[in-house]
Write a structure and sequence with these properties.
rod-shaped, 77 residues, mainly alpha, 2 helices
């Protein structure tokens, strides 16, 4: 850390934390889509009389990613 200021080091930590949060958010959203599809498929087989479908709104995907980044930054500082 020779030649860098405390502010530059803090900025690096925050950027790294945000990136880790974003990657974790993408992994979480992807697993959510996958599990939602699997559960919807299983429910359509088990509950033949009741139509079952899953829906994930784009707003919830964006909100989840923003939340993951904010939590990543909060935990990294």
């Amino acid at each position: 850390a020779l030649g860098t200021t405390r502010r530059e080091i803090l900025e690096l930590f925050i950027a790294e934390s945000a990136l880790i949060g974003l990657v974790g958010g993408f992994i979480g959203v992807s697993l959510g889509f996958l599990l939602s599809g699997i559960i919807g498929f299983i429910l359509s087989i088990v509950l033949t009389d009741i139509p079952a479908s899953t829906y994930i709104s784009p707003f919830m995907v964006i909100a989840s990613l923003i939340f993951a980044v904010v939590m990543g930054v909060a935990s990294g500082t």
